[in-house]
Amino acid sequence: MSRYRWKWLLTLVIVNLLYIPLNRRIGFSDSGIELMIGWDKLMPVWPVWVVPYFLSILYWYGSGWVFGRGLVEIEFRRYVFSMVMVMLVSFCLYALWPTYVERPVVEESGVFGTWLKWVYSHDNNYNAFPSSHVYFTVVTSYFWWKLVKGKGWLWVLIVGVVAASTVLTGQHHLLDPVAGLLLGLSVCLMSSKIIGRGGYESVNR
Question: In this structure, are residues 117 and 45 in contact, taking their beta carbons and an 8 Å threshold?
Answer without folding.
Answer: no
